[in-house]
Amino acid sequence: xxxxxxxxxxxxxxxxxxxxxxxxxxxxxxxxxxxxxxxxxxxxxxxxxxxxxxxxxxxxxxxxxxxxxxxxxxxxxxxxxxxxxxxxxxxxxxxxxxxxxxxxxxxxxxxxxxxxxxxxxxxxxxxxxxxxxxxxxxxxxxxxxxxxxxxxxxxxxxxxxxxxxxxxxxxxxxxxxxxxxxxxxxxxxxxxxxxxxxxxxxxxxxxxxxxxxxxxxxxxxxxxxxxxxxxxxxxxxxxxxxxxxxxxxxxxxxxxx
Amino acid sequence: xxxxxxxxxxxxxxxxxxxxxxxxxxxxxxxxxxxxxxxxxxxxxxxxxxxxxxxxxxxxxxxxxxxxxxxxxxxxxxxxxxxxxxxxxxxxxxxxxxxxxxxxxxxxxxxxxxxxxxxxxxxxxxxxxxxxxxxxxxxxxxxxxxxxxxxxxxxxxxxxxxxxxxxxxxxxxxxxxxxxxxxxxxxxxxxxxxxxxxxxxxxxxxxxxxxxxxxxxxxxxxxxxxxxxxxxxxxxxxxxxxxxxxxxxxxxxxxxx
Lengths: 257, 257
Ligand SMILES: Nc1ncnc2c1ncn2[C@@H]1O[C@H](COP(=O)(O)OP(=O)(O)O)[C@@H](O)[C@H]1O
Ligand SMILES: [Mg+2]
What we know:
The structure holds 2 protein chains of 2 kinds.
Chain A: E1 4-15, E2 18-29, E3 33-37, H1 44-52, E4 59-64, E5 67-68, H2 74-81, E6 84-87, H3 99-110, H4 115-128, H5 133-136, H6 145-157, E7 163-167, H7 175-192, E8 195-200, H8 203-209, E9 212-217, E10 220-226, H9 236-243
Parallel strand pairs in A: 3-8, 3-9, 6-7, 7-8
Antiparallel strand pairs in A: 1-2, 1-4, 4-5, 9-10
Chain B: H1 2-32, H2 39-49, H3 54-76, H4 85-123, H5 126-132, H6 137-175, H7 180-190, H8 193-219, H9 224-255
Helix pairs in contact in B: 1-6, 2-6, 3-4, 3-6, 4-6, 4-7, 4-8, 4-9, 6-8, 8-9
The complex binds adenosine-5'-diphosphate and magnesium ion (MG).
The site of adenosine-5'-diphosphate has 9 residues of chain A, from α1.
């Protein structure tokens, strides 16, 4: 159980003249929880979208379970994606559908399950993230941020995926709700035995969910190790980040008065 | 020189845009013709695009028919040809005004609504979320709207034609001293099948452009609320221009022999 489930090699991705990822390498072992830390705008979300095929990198290769998925499209891509779950940074719930249909969406539309059975599963998944049947009939706009994240989480795990991505699952939540979400993630991942990549700049969250940690800086992975090693990484960038210091090798582009 | 350079850039932009629209259309048609078909989506869209447009199309047609009768009566009385009122009202409504006005009105209502809805879904990552749930957004969002608009616009125009001719009839019999039975008889005797069918074919084409422009601009909107606003405006303007231009082309194809 230690082969690489997800492997990115030398990924380059630009938007116009702006190079966001240049030469990014990352490997995640099957069944492991990888947490990618890094500052805002360092290309974390872009990396996930490249793996999902929502963006196509100009250079590099992406292997999932040993299979080359770079530039895949159509039915093959759909097949690969049917093993994925994704919690978006903005939750990205379908605001025209009630909560239970959001959670059941992949089952009804993607896997052509009948609605009654899909609803039962949706209610079960909602219960797993601590939401009752009364919430199921509400619309996403009627929920608080924390509840939306939980619905997004329920939607991500509804299809019992092998691989789950969590894009900043705790950003913008109060510390208690953040911890609740962390627990839910750990819980869901254990239950499913899934391989996960979580993105965060919240170190408390990272320590809680990570088996492995990688740090992205200026479009490259500059350090990768186990969660225990992060405190003795010997890397100045990592040290600065995990202690949240303004002084260090990472310079923010702010004009000093 | 500066002026020429700008003109050149404008033409290049326009050509690039046309290329993108053609690719988008091709994608929508080819993907849309493969299963699965989202019947529920098609029905929902038929209600939204067709049924919900009935009041505004009906009102427009009624007032236009009435005004047309008054104008033709006034104009034709200059050479004592008042008896042409019923036939010209019927011809004008069925061939031109029915389909074009319904097209423009629905473009304002529906293209804008589609662009705003899909644009919001794009900028809030809901379209990306669809992909990760193994649902092709072209199929799930675009095809049902195209199909619904192509099917419902002709139905709307049948209703609009009838109400428009009724408008002319009411004005003519109530305030212009036309004989009720004679007016209707002239209308029915004069109208040919192809007067009506040409209008219906036109309206199906208009329906296609209305949905296509809404979807295209919504799908490609970028950058938050402002981007969605821009998409909405562009959708209505481009749909209206396409309607007027193709109306001219189709009229010259149908009626020059
Ligand atoms: N679709 C896009 N078009 C253009 N630029 C983008 C796009 N998506 C992301 N970017 C840019 O890429 C950079 C990295 O973005 P992102 O991966 O979202 O950062 P983060 O690490 O905070 O998740 C940002 O500077 C952003 O402006
Ligand atoms: Mg991000």
